[in-house]
Structures are given as structure tokens and as C-alpha cells.
Write the C-alpha cells for this entry.
Amino acid sequence: MATEQPTWERFDRRRRLSRFVLLLVAAVTVVASWRFMDTGVARPETIPREIADLLTRMYPPDVAYTTQIVQPLIETVQIAALGTLGAILLAVPVALLAAENTTPNAATFWLGKLIVTVSRSVNTIIWALFFVVLFGSGPLAGAVAIVFRSIGFLGKLLGEEIEEIDFGQVEAVRASGASSAQILLYGVLPQVKPALVGLSIYRWDINIRDSTVLGFVGAGGIGVELFRAVNAFAWQSVAMVLIVILGVVVVTESLSAYTRGLVR
Amino acid sequence: MLQVTDLRKTYPTGDEALKGVTTSVEGSETVAMIGPSGAGKSTFIRCVNRLTEPSGGEIYLDDTELTGLNDDALRAARRDIGMIFQEYNLVERLTVMENVLTGRLGYVSAWQAFRRSFPPEDIERAYEILDRVGLGEMENKRVDELSGGQRQRVGIARAVIQQPKILLVDEPTSSLDPETSNTVMRLLTDIAAEREVPVLINIHEVDLAIEHADRIVGLHDGELVFEGSPSELDQLGLDQVYRGAEVPENADDGQAPETTGDGDVLPDTDRPLAGET
């Protein structure tokens, strides 16, 4: 008598059907969006020529212009550093509120979540627009914008780290008669320290990139020069600014990766 | 002296972990609390320093009633209660010294704690205790570099430096191999004896309890079912603790007690005495 061949399938018929339907929905959405946006380039054949044209105008980069962008460049780095520092100080309490195991009660938990969501749902550049109106144009508006955007990022990710800690260590500190502040210092902080350092450096790295465009809305930094050069069609200066920004980003990224590697 | 009267704990899930337990730890005796998993041993210990809030009953440590204390008074009372944990619960990313000094946090401000500036006498005592538990010269090692036995020694040092009126010890050897278990138990009871600190130990290895304790109390299903010296813990006592045998009206020697409770009879090879339950 022939024995039945053993068969095994990862998904049963129902799962297969629902996966197929999901894929179909995704495909339809993409196609529909494309058509709805009326995306399309009027004359695709001109693109290569335009690129070539732009590159010729950019070459050679205006090296002499470098002296003028050093100052705004330093300002950009400072905006990022100051903004990140402020964000860390403010994000730690927010993270403690937004973590289920350290928040005092349900109301504070939702307050923490609200701060995180509001901060994250507004882009840095939009925060900057807002603070330029408040403080006038300049690097202060930029730094505060960086702070407001970074609080949500750091608060959310640090809060998640706090939720992952080993609570036994916290309990042991509590059992010795430590106060709440001491419990945070000895029970919680050492456990999230690598995450705190790593996330802060990562955010600083993002903030450097973010603050290069803050100048577009008048919030200081190298973006001011870039915007001015673009508006003046001074493409050789634009090229120089872009090269310098690229250099700064490469340096900060490798510094960020290196420093995060040091923390354990 | 620790005097616990009619201690009850009902968890929000409705589980009755403790159904009115009355016992005491006196003088500088070592009391071992035995019982199967889920009998309420850990809950009992954690209720004493209120890491778990008891639902009813009274707990006196010397003249202080612990269950009614407000937050500040509870913190002060906890300074007098040393606790040693099953999973050591050391702060893994801090050094041995920092972990030991954690036992003195109740006596310094948060700022001093942050700056790690503890009084010189605390530091001196920390060195002395580290030497005593066999971790001299290890003070700057990070705890996550230590072995299990070494970690539990740090745990002991952290509890002892509190100069507590009682040591609460929750399954100190469950994460250790048998040989290390024995050494750690000996060290623990020796140090407690030297300093004349009473000890309440949760333990499920009955042979370790018999060897190291002055008195044994047995919990079964949240109730105290045995209390006596190690030599009084016979098969009947073990049956009561581990299998929920009824306490007989007239204990008749030689007659096997009737088992009730969950009703299944353990094979001889699975006796608690043989090791872990």
C-alpha cells in the first residue's frame, strides 16, 4: 500500500490567500498614487543635458569662497552641539515619564507619550520656522528647533531602553533603603548608559545634517550661505558648500561610529 | 528580632500567595524557609521589606511595625534589612566596590551618591567585608566580569555592609552549582554568626537547609505547615511541606501519611532531599 507523502507548507491556504490580497492592495496603492500625483517628467530627454549643464556650471568649485563659509560652518556645528545637549537634558525626564516601569502614574505616562509624539511629528525645519518667528532669525532659533525635534527622538528611544532594563537590579538598590533619585542613579542609569551615550551621539550626527538646512528658513548656520548661493545662481559657490558639508558629515559620522563603539 | 503575625498576600490576579503565616526569627538564629515552588516563600520575604505590599498582617522588626510605614519611614527601615537575591541582582555595569557601597545609599545624599563620595568609614568597612568574602583586590572589577559564585559574594557583601538587623535571603544558591552553593551558604551563615545577625533564608534544597539552618519552617500553598529544628524534619514533615499531606491528628510512626493536595505521589528518585524540586 502506497504511503502518503509527507508534505509541509509554511502557510496554510487562508494565510496564502490573505498574503496575496495584501500584496495586491500594496501594488494597487503604488500605481494609484503614481497616477494621482500625475508624476511624470514633461521632457525626459532633456534630463541628461540639464545635469551636464549644472555640473559644468559648478566646476570648478569656488575654493576662494571657503574663507567665507568657515564661520557659518562652525555655527552649524555649534547649533547641532547645543541643540543636542539641550535635548539630552530635557529628554531624560521625558523618557522616564514615557517608560511604563518608571512613570509615576497613567497620567504622567500619557504626558510623556504626548510630548514624544508632538516633538516627533513636527520636522526640524518646521520647528525652525516657528522659532524664527518667536526669536527672530539666527542660530538661537535653529538650536531650539533642534532641541524640540530631538526630545521626541531621544525620549522615545531612551524610554524604550528603560522599559527593557532588568528590574531586579533596581529592586536590589531599593531594598537597601535608597531614595528615588538614588534608585535612578544606581539602578536605572548604569543600565541605560550605553544606550544614552549611543543615542545622543547618533542624534548629534543627525542634527549636524539637519542644521545644514536650517539656514533656508533663516535659522542660522551654513544653510544661509547655501541658500544665498543657490538664489544667486552662484553654482561654483554652491559646489564648494556642498563639498564642505559632505566633509563635515563624513567626519561626524565616523566620529559617531567610533565613539559608540567605545561605550559598553 | 523579626516577628511576623498572620501575614497575608493576595495578588491582584486573585492568587492567594500567603494565607496567614505567623512565625519569627529571633536572636541571631538562621531560619530556613523551605517549600515547593509557588508555596509563597519569595512572597513572604519580599513582604517583609515591602518590595511586595502585604495584604494583611503585622510585621515587627524589633519595635518597628513595617506594614504601616510611610515612604520615608520605610526607606529608613529598609536600611536595617539586608537582602540577598537569587539572581544576585547586582548592578551589572558598576564595579564591585560601587555595588557594595550601594548598601550604604540610605545614609548619603543623592549628590554624594552621584559623586561616589561615601564616608571613609564606609569605604574602610567595604574593603574589610570584601576581604572577608574573599574578593580582596577585586574592588575595581566590573561585576559583569565575575563568576556566579563571586557575584553572590558581592551580593552578600552588599547586604552585610548595611549592618542590618536581619538578613533576608531569597534562594541564594539556585543559580549556582552544588559545590559553590555549599561554599556560599557556609560563608553566609558564618558571616551572619560573626556579626550576630539573624538570617531568614528561602531555599528549596532541603539538604542545604538541614545542614546550615538552626530552625526550619515549611510553607505549603501559602500556609505554614512545619516548624522545628532540622533534626525534627522527618519524612512526615517533608510530605506535609512538599506534597500537602494532612497534619495527622495522632501521628503514628511507621504509617505512611495519606497524601492529598495535588494527589500525585512523587517517586523516590524525585524526593526533595535528592536535590532540586
User: Anything to note?
Assistant: The CA atoms of residues 15 and 179 of chain A lie 53 Å apart.
